[in-house]
Amino acid sequence: MSTSTDSQFILPPTSEPLPSSNAEMQRKRRRTFAIISHPDAGKTTLTEKLLLFGGSIEIAGVVRGRKTQRAATSDWMEMEKQRGISVSSTALTFEYAGCQVNLLDTPGHHDFSEDTYRTLMAADAAVMVIDLAKGIETQTEKLFQVCHLRKIPIITFVNKVDRPGRASLEILDEIERRFSLEPIPQNWPLGTGADFEGIVDLNSDQLYLFNDRQGSRRIAADVMNWHELEESNQVSASLINSTRDEVELVRSAGGAFNEEAFLSGRQTPVFFGSALTNFGVEHFLNGFLRLCPPPGVRPNDTANVPVDPTQFSGFVFKIQANLDPRHRDRVAFVRVCSGRFERDMEITIARSGKKTRLSRAVRIFGQDRITIEEAYPGDIIGLVCPGEFRLGDTLCDGPVFSYDALPQFSPEFFAVLDCSDTGRRKQFDRGLAQLIEEGAIQMFHDPRSTRRECILGAVGELQFDVVQFRLQSEYNAASRVSWRPYKLARWFDLPDLPKAADANEIADRIKLPYAAKLVKDQFGHDAVLLQTDWDLTTLLRENPKVSFQSIRTEKKLTP
Ligand code: G4P
Question: What is the DSSP string of 454-506?
Fold first, then answer.
């Protein structure tokens, strides 16, 4: 038997020829991913442990601090301080075993899930954390749907095996049943809860025995071949027998790992572990780095003309205002997709054709900003900008093209904002128009109404607070919220009608349930606002030939 304290990491296999350029080498060693989970499943704890392996021990403290101490470094917005929540997301970066790992940080609060949804558009893979006791919960389900839309490969981490939970086989069954995703276990727990004794690597048959409960530090594990366990007398015969039965069942009934099925989002490798006791996390990290794809080609409008991998391109997936209240600036977060970013380079914004010099590029951690001199595919750069960028903008050096537009997600809260001080009406209108354009909130209007009332929509209620806060702090315009009773939006196209069809003509084609509203969004797309799921069922039943979408994408990725 040997003892393992550190990584036995194997660099990801290099089946492709060795890269010829430095930029290509940098791309191949990047791993960019986000963690999706329901609150309390263990995302923060897992993030902290991953950072520990990356040597960012101090940073790991901040991750926890951010969740528990409400005024920690990342609570940069005044509103965050008041509410004790984090509304911003950026990237945490660490080096491990020759890879640069970019972990896209997503807000834990479900009111900001629209931010999380968009952040997933910048990821090359997602880690789905599931609590062994609770299984798949609502927020995980919603986030899974967004990954599914983009066919993002998902690696599952079943957490809290040190706590009494459900049977491990039951969790696999649930993943398969609810997500039509074939789970391929990579390791298997030797007992759970009080009986948790270790983890068997199903690929090598190595057993890592849980012999040290030191909590947050890297811990030692006894390593032996799983088949030698019986003779070692370290674990009860009944636990060995039941685990052997499970492993045999998993091996005989389960499918084999297939890279293509994993990369196209049909299979998910599953790891079991305990983030809190730091057991199985290193095994997971090594497996994750082996499986997670490096940045690849992204969907774009160049049809069959491939994006030149040597020329810089990227897209804006998030805009955050007031990161530094002293400057009232905005930061556009850009995911680099190709080529090499260099500070001060001149690029074209594909939407406007405008050329712009990128002189203020930063990596942000809490209050700190570190100037970025260069970046490669998979990296996230923050561009300090006075307002020239919009969500979804493509930035490119060389021939101009656009990456696929960011999807729009169905709001769950709708309201009308009124200007409280008529003397500030102009500033209010300007501010609101700017925030809608920036993507801070969605806007709908009824084209047949003469009132031209703007109904604002957001996935989370607190997004309205952010908009009100920004109107007040950036435009000195106070506002009042009047809620509207709608709870969902469904976009639709009527292909046989011209895009600029008359609103009455469209209304004639759609049979609306009572109390639903036919609207256009800020881009002129047709949508229906509905109050209940029952209304939605009626809408679908009454209009069987129309395809309604809960997520609006230009390329209609939803079925
Ligand atoms: P989240 O970011 O997904 O919301 O979850 P977080 O990591 O904050 O974990 C939620 C709770 O679950 C925390 O307990 C955390 O300590 C606990 N936890 C996380 N991973 C494990 C695990 O592997 N095993 C066990 N037993 N517990 C785990 P808390 O009491 O809410 O917070 P704290 O007092 O520990 O900070």
Answer: -EEEESSTHHHHHHHHHHHHHH---EEEEEES--EEEEE--TTS-TT--HHHH
